[in-house]
Amino acid sequence: MKPTLKDVARMAGVSTATVSRILNSTDGYSPETRLRVMEAIETLGYLPLRPPPSTFEPIRPAIGLVFPKVSSMLIGRVLSGVQQEAQKRGHLVVVCHTDGTLRSTLDHLQLLVQHQVRGVIFASEILQREYHELLLQAGIPVVLLSSMSYQFDVPYVRCDDRRAACEATLHLLNLGHRDIAILAGARSDPFSSTARVEGYVDAHMQLGLPIKEHHIVYSRGFSFEDGQEGFHFLLQRETAVSALFACSDELAAGALLAAQTRGVKVPDQLSIMGFDNLLLTETTVPALTTVAQPFEDMGREAVQLLLNPTEGSRNRVLPVRIIERASVRSLP
Length: 332
Description:
By secondary structure, the protein is an alpha/beta fold. It has helices at about 5-10, 15-25, 30-45, 70-90, 100-115, 130-140, 160-175, 190-205, 225-235, 250-260, 295-305; strands at about 60-65, 90-95, 120-125, 140-145, 155-160, 180-185, 215-220, 245, 270-275, 290, 315-320, 320-325.
């Protein structure tokens, strides 16, 4: 049986991430650690999954940034931070925008392996076993951005979605709202949906308020169209709400248009709050109150963690803040 990266890590007494980074000549490790890793590689006869040298000769070292099918506005904010930090460190950024399927993501990861990238930032997507094994065998370190893995020991940069949603819901509750619906997006998303619904529930429990299951509305995703459909579905339940918390700004914007189309005045008859603080929140009428995620800072932190893993904490959770605009009002 061929030796694996895990075998090397076990023999050297280090993590698989350390082996990957030493193979990629990442700074920050002592000569002793490097020696143990290289001796283990030689003893086991481990061969990293790399293309022949003639396949691709990078002009400058590069890192990969992998996105699933998500908002282009969100991508732009994250990419700005990633590129700024990568440029400071003399690295190019190879951007891969997948359609979110297993095959598409694997194809893009194979491309990054062929390009001999120094590391991969996996943004807003679940790290499947197939992705992890491919990068592990290639000796390429990975950092998760805006997500985390319960299955693999992989560093991450993210916000606390559950706590952020709790703060957002408490903001509405403290303004006097008691009938608050939540547009939760795709039920399958453990962070943007599940964790934020849990935060919504936490806020109600903190104030001893009941949870009304018919106020929790899931949809196919987090897009503008999903927000419109979610609002119409909420109306079909014939439940009276004074506020709506959407788990993305695009959901909130879609719900806003759907409400206005139905003659519902925002915020006089319905307050609407989003999540992300994308540029569109300043352009809607009224402008959307939202939870601001520091996307550019997250991008910068991800690059720092990828290229200098020994600097500071291995995992980084960044704070959010509530941006108050005109789409939410207080109740008497």
